[in-house]
Amino acid sequence: MERLDKILSSQGICTRKEARKLAADKKITVNGITVRKTDIKIDPENDIIEVGGKRVEYKKYVYIMMNKPKGVLSASNDRNAPTVIDLLNDDYKRNGLFPAGRLDRDTTGLLIITDDGDFAHRFLSPKNHVPKLYKATLDKPITDSDKQILEQGMTLRDGTKYSPAKVKTTNGCIVEIEISEGKFHQVKNMFAFVGKTVENLERLRIGGLFLDKKLSHGECRYLNNSEITAIFNSDNY
Ligand code: URA
To answer: Nearest 5 degrees, angle CA 229-CA 235-CA 237?
Structure first.
């Protein structure tokens, strides 16, 4: 059993505040009966919810976009440091949530948090090549030959191989770079290979899903169906 307002917000239908207003306006029914309060507990798998006459198709799993701040770990729990899951407020908290993929502790930007293991597996699988776009602020501007090296791929001294990256834009020390692997410290290591230190790193896009600029650091929101699909569809970029 779950609160009606929490169900509606987790399904990406409306915020909890909007749900209260919709209920006050007699726009929400549960099993055909108009409800005036949204703190009632219902069974989302069996009860029929309609908003403005339209049935809510209940999705079992949730998908949350977070603008990850610096200083928190992309992990579910850690004894010594705060994690992205610790940052979630009660609206989002539920069992089984974990970050799909990792950003370094000092990296900010787009992170997806879900409780859908199959989705995460599909998303992280190297064979799906979901590209990720990062904005890196470097200590020095990159040169044309650095760009060529980054776009050819490289093998580090320890044998780690990185596939070719795409350098999308460069503006002095700020470089937008896209990679389709997600190896540990990959962007920082690729720039280090060409003698540059990444001073700031932000993830801007995953597949066709952009970071919502309205989210400040530490804030999150639920993804809707078309945004979830967009993750696997980046043909236009
Ligand atoms: N590459 C990095 O070096 N760090 C990140 O957090 C993500 C990609």
So the answer is: 105
Q: What is the 3-state secondary structure (H, E, C) of 63-98?
A: EEEEEECCCCECCCCCCCCCEHHHHCCCCCCCCCCE
175 Cα to the center of ligand 1, angstroms: 14
Q: Does the CB atom of residue 186 touch ligand 1 within 6 A? A: yes
In CATH, what number is assigned to the domain containing residue 175?
A: 3.30.70.1560
d(CA 123, CA 131): 10
- Mean pLDDT per 10-residue segment, the chain (237 residues): 92 90 97 96 95 91 96 95 94 91 97 96 86 97 96 96 94 95 95 98 97 97 90 78
Residues 138 and 180 in one domain: yes
Q: Which structural domain, as residue segments, surrounds residue 151?
A: 131-206
